[in-house]
Design brief:
With about 130 residues, the protein is an all-beta fold. The chain has no helices and 11 strands. The strands form 2 sheets. Strands 2, 4, 5, 6, 9, 10 and 11 form a 7-stranded mixed β-sheet that branches. A 4-stranded antiparallel β-sheet has the order 1-3-8-7, with no helix packed on it. A hairpin with a 4-residue loop joins strand 7 and strand 8. The protein is globular and about 40 Å long.
Length: about 130
């Protein structure tokens, strides 16, 4: 059974940091990429980042480049999103999702329709 479980969200002040985790089970990160998306109230879902550890590829939205870093520990089957210099506009529910490798490219990673399994989400709130 495929499962994705996010953790690590919370309340942080502007300029602070959080590290989100996405624990995957029922499949191996050797054969799939993992993407991070977020959705704020009243806004559309936005692709944040994606990693294909097998191919050694990472992708980022322009809004988070230089602040967020995605990484994977294949031995633990877990993907991380390190978020630094957080801003109030980063406030959202963050989701991880599984992406078949044939979609894991510059054009495909940001399309949520290409992902086949999603986690339940974790809330990130950036506020003073």
């Amino acid at each position: 059974q495929v499962q994705l479980v996010e953790s690590g969200g919370g309340l942080v002040q502007p300029g602070g940091s959080l590290r989100l985790s996405c624990a995957a089970s029922g499949f191996s990160l050797d054969y799939y990429a993992i993407g991070w998306f977020r959705q704020a109230p009243g806004k559309e879902r936005e692709g944040v980042s994606c990693i294909s550890s097998t191919e050694g590829s990472t992708y980022y939205a322009d809004s988070v480049k230089g602040r967020f870093t995605v990484s994977a520990d294949n031995a633990k089957n877990t993907v991380y999103l390190q978020m630094n210099n957080l801003k109030p506009e980063d406030t959202a529910v963050y989701y991880c999702a599984r992406l078949p490798l044939y979609y894991a490219d510059y054009d495909g990673w940001g399309n949520g329709n290409n992902y086949d399994y999603w986690g339940q989400g974790t809330q990130v709130t950036v506020s003073s």
